Amino acid sequence: MTGAVRLEPVDEQNLEPLLSVAVAEAEPADVMPPVAAPAGWSHARREAFREFHRANFGGLDAATRTAMYAILAGGEVVGMIRMTRRDEPDAVEVGMWLGRSARGQGIGAVALRELLNLAAAAGMRVVVADTAPENRGALSVLDKCGAKLREDDGRVHAEIHLDSTPPAP
């Protein structure tokens, strides 16, 4: 792992570095909702990325019910992790992406553990995630953080109860 891993809320200060990592090291479909725009990282898609993240600056209690955090390793932005309130009052869904150069170094598990701490501090008791069975990186991170995994209809559903302590790194 390259330096200490920490999370900081996505804001105007780290939005452009986050976009730079996304453009250089990820596919648009992996880091943002689909938009009608030319393929690849077109100008329109970059603008949509900015607007998508700006819409979530308000955090869990704002209209989007989402808190997004830039993942920093060694002081550099390497990806993003988010939590979104679900309809259940004490549950959030988590999603994360890392630039290709940050994958496989343990950064994802450290970032998820930190997000679990933030979720618990916000009064959440359950964190869920949904991914594809072929997403080995996500499955490994979820497993390392104590998620119960089940496969259903070609998707893997994960659940972490925050009243139990996540495993140590």
Number of strands: 7
Average residue-wise pLDDT: 92
State the order of secondary-structure elements, H for helix, E for strand.
EHHHEEEHEHEE
Helix segment tally: 5
Low-pLDDT segments: none
CATH hierarchy class name: Alpha Beta
How much beta, percentage-wise? 25-35%
Q: How many domains in all? A: 1
Helix content: 25-40%
Helix/strand class:
alpha+beta
CATH topology: Aminopeptidase
Largest sheet: 7 strands, mixed
Secondary-structure map with pairings?
Elements lengths: L4 E5 L2 H14 L2 H4 L11 H12 L11 E8 L2 E10 L5 E8 L8 H15 L4 E6 L4 H9 L3 E5 L2 E7 L8
Helix pairs in contact: 1-3
Protein architecture, described:
The protein is of the alpha+beta class and 169 residues long. It has a single domain (5-161), classed as Aminopeptidase (3-Layer(aba) Sandwich). It is 32% helix and 29% strand. The chain is built from 5 helices and 7 strands. The protein has helices at 12-25, 28-31, 43-54, 107-121, 136-144, and strands spanning 5-9, 66-73, 76-85, 91-98, 126-131, 148-152, 155-161. The chain has a 7-stranded mixed β-sheet, sandwiched between helices. Helix 1 (12-25) crosses helix 3 (43-54). The longest helix has 15 residues, at 107-121. The two termini are 12 Å apart. The mean pLDDT is 92. Pfam families: Acetyltransf_3 (PF13302). Residues 5-169 form the N-acetyltransferase domain. One of its GO terms (molecular function) is acyltransferase activity, transferring groups other than amino-acyl groups. This is GNAT family N-acetyltransferase. Keywords: Transferase.
